Amino acid sequence: MKLLKPSWVNHNGKPIFSVDIHPEGSKFATGGQGEDSGKVVIWNMAPVLREEDEKNENIPKMLCQMDNHLACVNCVRWSNNGIYLASGGDDKLVMVWKRAAYIGPSTVFGSSSKLANVEQWRCVTILRNHTGDVMDVAWSPHDVWLASCSVDNTIVIWNARKFPEIVTLLKGHTGLVKGLTWDPVGKYIASQADDRSLKVWRTMDWQLETNITKPFNECGGTTHVLRLSWSPDGQYLVSAHAMNNSGPTAQIIERDGWRTNMDFVGHRKAVTVVKFNPKIFKKKQKNGSSQKPSCPYCCCAVGSKDRSVSVWLTSLKLSHGTLNGLGILVCSMDGTVAFLDFSQDELGDPLNEDEKNSIHQNIYGKSLAITTEAQLSTTIIENPEMLKYQQEKGPVEHHNAADHETQAPKLTSVVNGESLEDIRKNLLKKQVETRTADGRRRITPLCIAQLDTGYFAYAKLSKYWRPQVLVKSVFSFSSSVNPLGTGAAPAVNSNNIKPNLLLTSAAKIEPMKALDSRFTERSKATPGVTISSSAVGLTMLDRMKDGGPLKDPKPKEETSSDSEDKMAVTKLSFTKRKGEVEGPEVVEKKKKGRPRKDTKMTPVSHAVQQVTPSLEKETSRVAAPSAAMKLPTVTLQKVFSLQVGSSVFVEVENEVSTVGGVRFSQLRCTREGREWDTLLTSRILTVAGSSEVIAVACEDRTLSVLSACGRRLLPAILLPAPVSALHCSGSFVMVLTACATLSVWDVKKQVILVRNVSLLTILSGTDTTVSQSLLTQQGVPVISLSNGRSYCFNSSLETWNLIADKQDSLVQCADFRNFLPSQDPMVSSGPLAIMQGRTLNAGRLASRLSSTPHHLQQGMTLAYLENQLASALILRSSQEYRHWLLIYARFLVNEGAEHRLRELCKDLLGPVHKSAGSIWEDTVLGLRKRDLLREVLPVIGQNLRFQRVFTEYQDQLELLRNK
Amino acid sequence: MAKVQVLNVAVLDNPSPFGNPFQFEITFECMEDLPEDLEWKIIYVGSAESEEYDQILDSVLVGPVPAGRHMFVFQADAPNTGLIPESDAVGVTVVLITCTYRGQEFIRIGYYVNNEYTDPELRENPPLKPDYSQLQRNILASNPRVTRFHINWEGCAERMEDSENVDPAPNAMLPPSCPAGKAPSLGLMPDNSMDCL
Lengths: 963, 197
Fold this sequence. Notes:
The structure holds two protein chains of two kinds. Chain A is built from 22 helices and 54 strands.
């Protein structure tokens, strides 16, 4: 055995409360106290294992550190699949981390530390329910559940497949719960608490299986943790701190009858941590010919407050008192970590997962896969297909997820075919800036990477790596063992020498000091933070004297009233502002080059637009009585450029040349590197384009439609009024005129879809204006109003349909978050999502805060989801329809709404036998209904209550397929 | 924990004439979709002596912010010279970028700014009345001073809850040997974590 204390593994001298080795053995995590927060650090294992790696400066030691916990971290645990890391801390939170593969390492902005995070681990979910410090977290076998325990005396079982859903709360302990362990076959979970009891709970019904108190009766003093552990063969449960004849022990509890006849004796103080190596071992066969395996055994380490660790090997049937060693990481409250290294000879051969499974099957008679879902143990599965879905649930999700991965890496390095560098060069010009209804600037940030894109790539890779990395049966072991002597070298504290930032005059030192405080003090006017300012109370008081706090609101008010004025003026009339020429670029500039992910849709804001005098003169001459103008017109600009498609750029120069008194305007278009230009006789107001056409609206109210290569497809169209907004999508062209009328044409088929429809229906009330308009890929026009409502025009019914309403109380109250798929890139890019945008999130939030009775909430959610489905249908947004359909189905399945579910399935299936009178369409929005049903069925299959429904439709689908 | 992390701020157009707009390219990352917009502000400290001379150059809403990494350029006009005390026009001052969510400031990024005449003649004998057209603004971009504040990201309701909920057994579970470094309670922790170079 070798013992190593890698001094570089530390939290700058602060205590470390937990350590856990990644299932692959390639890295490990520590959790504990940070500078002023909790700290989780992920370390590279290689420098611990090999000295040459430790010396090699090119091999990173620290991979990532996360300071996100607000208070001390008590426990870190890797999921069994190695994808997630869970951490629990004194901030009452459990955080779940996942690796995101961004390009390149990152440092903390503004931090003095030059250490880059080699790997990017991101918190994917925060689990809030505990009302006290979280002491331990544990992943169930197969990562179906995550359990956490707390000093609030409870244990929370989280649904690890649908965070942050809570499966159940285990209540029964009357003291601080300080340790958790899952039965390796998933039938039980055991907990140990300060109430001198160890409880075993069934996962089938989450009821108490047994309550063991006898070995703990004598226990007095407190231990920080009580980390118990279950042996990997499932036969033994070993407790932390127990007493036998006044001596501290680790109690061995046999699964068979929960007998407590044996214990580990020898520690002089209370046992705080017990940890089994997750592997089962067998002795190495010396003569290779004999394949008869020796009796397998488990290995267990016991840590105590007496600052020592003992390691034990137990045979499956009897416990030997053999002291033996193996690879263990031990952490201590002195902030150090020690590694006990063993050769495989000493250790024995670890069995692989299959061998371990077969041992489980021999003992427990069923495969692990079946025990992953609680209901299964009580319900008989009638249909083999159903069984398949129940079993495949996990893998299926993973598989689907893996499909995303192929597209993900592209997203991270380039957006819309542009490199990050190119984007940065033009970001200011290209970023979308609008004005809110109250006249404030609003910038839509450019998304340069989606979160978690790297996770799947990582998961996939690890699948292949695993066999090679299996190597050592290393396991980690965390305890609050008191300092192992005084040998620990104190970390050289970074003494906070403030570098003199002043490169210039020394005379300015005085004001500099005065300025320093400005960096650290929060604005006074922030509401709701007055309580927290108690720590900086002194300075705050000083401020008060100066009348400081009163200063801030003043300029604020000024700016807001200023903008209100502006708005009022614009709304009142356009003519009144004749004299004032507002910088005409303002509006156009904001529209320029929209570096959107989805360039197919182009919403444009009309919130604040002014009419320049020149244009007004022009338009009044052309006709169109300005009194009838309900919507702002487009401002004329001499020169402007904009991006109209993913790689289509248009530059316009008005009045570029004068030939004999006639002025021409030039339009230059660059599409995928090829350029063309064309001349128009009138000045160009605005341009819109798609992959197929380019539409140009001119000052003389004409609309020209050009092909992608600049051919004129139609003679100029004369519009009834000046243009207010222009959109193209595919071969569709949409015009919104200043007289608040809307037209949509399909220029390829040369048909009209929407004929000069008035917006007066939806522009009720004097204050409402159009805030956004867009044309979907399917040619459906959508109008957003300043009152927060969005409508689309349905050309077949000739109706305006409400598709989004920010004031809609249904939106506020619907709670469907749990039914959202974990990965869904689509939802943010569809027309429905664009129009609803923020409301979608508002609903999620409200659902958490409101204490609506369940049945009411259920009703609201149902109504909301049905609205979404209908809206997606009317917008002809097939991907969004599918998205909401699946959420709807999940909701129905979860809420047990059988009638609706059946109706849904019935419509998707259609008539099994063809009859002449049938009006059933087999597709919806281009999606085959029966394919949709095939997607819905696995969702139904997840709830055993609906297995009859499942079987019924499964059979019929099968029947139809065979026809 | 903070849902928004500022990853980088690049100071564009620097150094530049005093009258040029400020331009900061801000890269940030958001852990989960934010239901509300972020509000960014640029504050120019007109005089070290008093906050009275602070000027909010501009404030801008940034949104929608879905989970992911984002960037934008925040441009704001140069300060109104009429509001700067003449004695403070030349020399070192500070520009601050703050970001608030639901009215709570969670990050404050400060830079020292040095305003100097480029002309050696003027530098030697600065005019009594500052000549802003001759001033150059130099933001010490390499030394951002970042202060992060803990805020309640879920809105005000939860804050109340946090401060009202008393731990079932406050600190009773800590072993006697538990270091003092363990933060006692969270709801009230202003956390002034300051990193500087």
